[in-house]
Please model this.
Amino acid sequence: MAKILPIVTYPDKRLKAVSKDVTAFDTELHNFLDDMYETMIQTNGIGLAAIQVDKAINALIICLPNDDEEGTQDKANLLEIINPKITHSEGSCVYQEGCLSVPKFYEDVERFEKISIEYVDRHGKACQLDASELLSIAIQHEIDHLLGKLFIEKLSYGRRKKFEKEYKRYQKEQKAKK
Ligand code: Y12
Ligand code: CO
Model:
């Protein structure tokens, strides 16, 4: 049975690690990807990188919500993206992003509007994907995790300062609850 893994949260230094390419496409990887999916769904996420559950490998998953009112997530729409490379990017857009590793905070971030990527699936099969809209943003956000980067690093100086102040208050509240 798949497990819910603990999520590493900011400012934990483990989030700064640059992940390494996956070389073994075995049962251990498949079980880990299943655990990532369970963790993402149980925590209301739509994207998760392996480093967020303390494994520095180039693996990320995305499951966008349906267009219905509940925003349900179908496992049929799950994308497992391993060893991704951005091969093309164009345009720019701004979207209010959130991250399971930075709970409670949402900030406007500028990204490419459209990207193309090459990656492999859980069996090591080569794949190609052209992404736009929310999918493009989610992939860019997750690829940044693989490079040890968080969306808050893209904020202006002023917005980052404000974020750090509010996040400290949030951390204090969480500590007091324990
Ligand atoms: C667009 C922008 C960013 C992404 C990356 C994936 N981000 C997430 O999946 C964020 C999830 C998230 C979920 C939260 O809900 C709970 O934890 C219950 C959340 O709220 C709290 O922390 C309270 C924050 C973020 C994809 C597409
Ligand atoms: Co994130």
Observations:
- The mean pLDDT is 97.
- DSSP finds three helices and seven strands in the chain.
